[in-house]
TrEMBL record:
Keyword Oxidoreductase: yes
Protein name listed in UniProt: Iron-containing alcohol dehydrogenase family protein
SUPFAM superfamilies: Dehydroquinate synthase-like
InterPro entries named among the record's database cross-references: ADH_Fe/GldA, Glycerol_DH
Residues annotated as domain Alcohol dehydrogenase iron-type/glycerol dehydrogenase GldA: 13-131
Keywords: Metal-binding, Oxidoreductase
Pfam families registered for this protein in UniProt: Fe-ADH
Length: 356
């Protein structure tokens, strides 16, 4: 399990006590914008330790095996005792795939709150053309996550916005996927933890998003960051069974992946944004109308999508998409067979709600 220290604006002061036992030389790998936001603060903190930064590298455009091999071939990587991964999901997943595979200590420094990659034991891999390839699972996550909430609060607020949609999905998808099953102890822990992927967002989400848009690092912002980055990561680790995310996914993610057939989704919309829309459909299909109302009101409050028009999908495209969703792997481990008729009825109910 990833070790964890309470997030704050001076968390990098803990780099020495946490990392010095793993060696002395550090390679920093990250995204261009992430390094611009965090590198100087990391370097200043490292200067007060026994560690030495011996290199700084860009991870690449996507989390691909080609990028992993390119970084692995660098002499500076071979010389480094440990790697600091800095950035968002693709940057952190790249350094995890690189280092955990080689059993080289890796530490994560998330700079946005759109996902839980800083704390998970999986990397989402892409093809060289930028399309989704597969999840790559590991036996452990990164050694430690350093979460500087001040840096995250100054990042573009659209990332937290999308992260909220992806995070509450963890609760609904895991509880539906695991329903009526006799679960392993660790899976039961994951399902129980997933509730904290929902509750803080309902309580703090609207104010946190408003504060984040102003660049403020408030209590509400920190609670939402924790839910997105830490709680979802912990739940994900416990919900992963035999390297198959049986309880990590569900109908909301099936809807997202089916809609990626249309270039507008990857071009104009974020993963969690579309998943947040998918949760609305999933809750109607599952008959959880009280929960649907909670999520619908949250989405309306922070302008996450509540209709097809919000994600630039036409009625014709949705008609075609509904034919593919029932056969997707994300709903293969569901307590019932998802059908096209269910999806048609759910969309009709959502349309009616939007007209009220």
């Amino acid at each position: 399990m990833v070790s964890y220290i309470h997030p704050c604006c001076n968390i990098y002061s803990k780099i020495g006590p946490v990392c010095e036992s793993y060696g002395r030389t550090v390679l920093v790998i990250g995204g261009e914008k992430a390094l611009a936001a965090a590198y100087q603060k990391i370097a200043a903190a490292v200067a007060k330790t026994k560690l030495t930064i011996i290199g700084k590298e860009l991870f690449g455009a996507d989390c691909t095996y080609d990028n992993v091999e390119r970084l692995r071939a660098l002499p500076v990587y071979q010389q480094a005792d440990m790697v600091f991964g800095v950035g968002g999901g693709k940057a952190l997943d790249t350094v995890k795939c690189l280092c955990i595979t080689d059993d080289k200590p890796v530490f994560t420094f998330p700079t946005i709150a759109s996902n839980c990659s800083a704390c998970t034991s999986v990397s989402i891999m892409y093809n060289p053309d930028g399309t989704f390839l597969k999840p790559h699972f590991f036996i452990r996550p990164a050694m430690h996550a350093f979460i500087d909430t001040e840096i995250i609060a100054k990042a573009p607020s659209c990332y937290m916005w999308a992260g909220i949609g992806d995070t509450y999905a963890k609760y609904y998808e895991s509880t539906i996927s695991s329903r009526d099953e006799r679960l392993e102890h660790f899976t039961s822990i994951g399902v129980a933890v997933s509730r904290m992927c929902r509750d803080p967002l309902l309580s703090y989400g609207p104010k946190a998003f408003a504060d984040h848009q102003k660049g403020l690092c408030t209590y509400d912002v920190e609670q939402v960051i924790l839910s997105i980055v830490v709680t979802t990561g912990i739940a994900s680790i416990f919900l992963t069974k035999d390297c198959t995310p049986d309880y990590n996914s569900g109908l909301a993610h099936a809807i997202f992946y089916a809609l990626t057939n249309y270039p507008v989704i990857e071009k104009n919309h974020l993963h969690g944004e579309v998943v947040g829309f998918g949760v609305l459909i999933a809750l109607i299909v599952d008959g959880q109308m009280d929960e649907f109302e909670k999520v619908y009101e949250l989405n309306k409050a922070i302008h996450l999508p509540v209709c097809l028009n919000d994600i630039e999908i036409t009625e014709e495209e949705w008609e075609e998409t509904m034919n593919r969703i029932p056969d997707m792997s994300d709903v293969a481990h569901y307590p019932y067979k998802v059908t096209r008729d269910m999806l048609v009825k759910a969309m009709n109910e959502l349309d009616m709600r939007n007209k009220e």
